Amino acid sequence: MATFPDGLYTTDQVRALDRCAIEVHNIPGITLMKRAGLFALDALLARWPQPTLITVICGSGNNGGDGYIVAGAAAQRGLPVRIVSVGEPEKLTADGQRARAYAQAQGVVMASFNDNIPLTEGVLVDALLGIGVSGEVRETTRAAIQAINASGLPTLALDIPSGLCSDTGCELGVAVRAQVTASFIGLKRGVYTGRGPAVCGDIVCSDLGVPDSVYDVAHPSAVRLDLSVVCRPLPARQRDAHKGHFGHVLIIGGDNGYGGAVAMAAEAALRVGAGLVSVATRVEHVPALLARSPELMVNGVASGQELEPLLSGPTHLVIGPGLGRSPWSEQMLQQALNTGLPMVVDADALNILAAGRIGRGGVEASGWVLTPHPGEAARLLGVTAAQVQQDRFAAAQSLWQRYPGTVLLKGAGTVLCHGEKSGGQPLFEICTQGNPGMASGGMGDVLSGVIGGLMAQGLRPADAARLGACVHGAAADRAAAVGGERGLLATDLMPHLRRLVNG
Known about the structure:
Number of helices: 18
Largest sheet: 12 strands, mixed
Radius of gyration: 26 Å
Strand content: 15-25%
Strand order of the largest sheet: 8-1-10-19-18-17-16-15-14-11-12-13
Helix content: 25-40%
Oligomer: single chain
Number of strands: 19
């Protein structure tokens, strides 16, 4: 592929691509297997140019066949290599048997997996399962995966780390922790969300030389968001522009003790270019907010009745940062819902909705962007956070079906769902920017302010959500590049947000 592809596929879709290449375009399966193995070996040597030993750990499926090709090609180049087989090689497909015969012809040493085989040097190649796994990893394969991980050796995974679900990104009991994943034919959506980012390492990919028309048989079920593409909805400002051209967003939140959350959301909205930003919060927080950001219009409100007159000016709302779950919080949310304005719904606003005391008669959510983390998503859906993480795509879709605006499910590989379709099926988007340093308080508040500020400038909710997620993650990446991930603060993102939205 000339450029790294944005389209992501399910397991069934990748199998359809394979079948099309083999059955329609008459490319023999063993040819695809050889191309995959050679590409993977080149990727291995690009990362680890002089391995003292290459140990290829092969299962009995087509992923194992790819591994036999890697081993045979390595031997052909004079590299030290061996194969460790897990399962019964007799169960290999005809193409897999041909691949194994090729490795044998090159004189590759082969052994069956057991606890006595040392994994103490060189580079490992995970060719155990690929995308063929369904359900929990079985005992023998589990032991092999655990041995790979316990070795601490650098590892390259073929197609996808064994034990990772290629559809959902969940770990099926245990998964190989790879430093490089070589992906074939089509990128799998599970590598970019859930546990995928933690176990895949760097991802390289090859279309194995199949014709472009192969990809007509399966529309991607998800796409990776590209910051340079999603930034396009922000046009250059006219020379006679004034603040009224760029919207007025009202941030509602900051119950007692939580004034920092609403302050960060409001500053973020300013930094991405909202024309006017006002805040409705507890009166105790007013001096601190004005001292931090004198550009804000800050109002102390003691009740929903006091909030009501402040709702006639804004074009957009952000409700939730530091909102709390008190009677005051519920009054704030009820008044916000009464306006029908486009809004970002975050944090405790989501938790109040989940409790069912507000919005029981149904709400008009088409202009909403909901930004739950897995725990908040779980409360909205009546499940556990672990169940949400088992299939983040299904969780995002279920939330969208209940609140049909735009859903942004936060976490490693943020998933967006907003009702757009590809090939008649829901199209998901994944934001791959961001880093573990974002696991600190206040990051979500900044994100909600970013999205609200972008909506205020005229972006559709879906466009604001996709751009906001990318800008937020990219700002965190830039901040981490300056000072490291550990100790990264939400407020460290502010100067980078401004630079990013200005190109």
